[in-house]
């Protein structure tokens, strides 16, 4: 088990790299990457990791989630404004579940659609909180700034760039993400650092660090090199052993081949250990019975790609103590949220899949006795327009998100929930919301819960000093 070194050692490592090579990054991020990279290389961390195991799970809703229909105003005047803006996309008030929403102003009330009933139940039980109008920002700006083009993030409304901004706080081309940079700081807390940053959805910039390499999980466990597994291959039981020996002994002068070889060797070295630990995790299988939903819809978790990702993450979390892990960052993904068309047909099922998968995951984690050790949060490219295009909604900016876990101060909407109407101070066109909270602020609160000091968060999150405090998600 790793121990914490002094903050003085950490800050010395960081400040000594102020003139580090900039590469493709502009200050302050280049200096931050150099600092966290140096920190990871020296295995020095000022982060607080002596308070037991903690895992942070990012659930990315790929395509741009229409969160206007996840949290809907229900008081008379604001529902009327919402309906007038959304028209054919508006959810009937009779199909909204009332939310307990202290702190959002006198007379305001909100609801969630029936398809999110499983998430609504977590919220009302105090296991989830909502964070209003979060989006990609370089610094806080006003509508006047937006009109003048001052302080506006580059390439707004572009999928690739805004996915990259959410995950790395840089436009497309950023080489590291804030989850991976957190991993750089936290990896020394783990007996097996290779399991610090874990993706179930392929290579994710969110988990890329200056030193840490993200570990890939398949939907059933470690991604195995099948020809190297015991058994008969090509008619011979000697093939797996020979392949393992060749991979372990091989070297290559070619940089690409050498990196591929390192990945293969890491896979061979870790897959068996992880598979054994996960098989004894005690996490139940996904239910095979379909879950009936309103309007004739249903979800079958046993065949759902998101639910399968959530289960394998739950297995790894439950196995963490046996692997000597104290800090992990995960990413899971579900696509399909780019609902320019067939919105009313497709969006209810998508949101139900998310809600049911989250509810199952939180139940499994609670059954493992680790509810307070895990925090899950949603993220997405951007929000969507309030205005309908006739069959769906188009690319927006700010959106509402949920944060869940036993440590979360739930049953509240944090941040400034905007008036859901056209022509407001937060409407920059067609009901695209000007964010009132930056991704950086949300990330800072999550990083603080993971144990990062203020100084470390300033290294991991460029431009943090430009923002106010993050949402008070934790006690």
Automatic annotation (TrEMBL):
<dbReference type="InterPro" id="IPR006311">
    <property type="entry name" value="TAT_signal"/>
</dbReference>
<dbReference type="InterPro" id="IPR010869">
    <property type="entry name" value="DUF1501"/>
</dbReference>
<keyword id="KW-0732">Signal</keyword>
<dbReference type="Pfam" id="PF07394">
    <property type="entry name" value="DUF1501"/>
</dbReference>
<feature type="signal peptide">
    <location>
        <begin position="1"/>
        <end position="46"/>
    </location>
</feature>
<protein>
    <submittedName>
        <fullName>Uncharacterized protein (DUF1501 family)</fullName>
    </submittedName>
</protein>
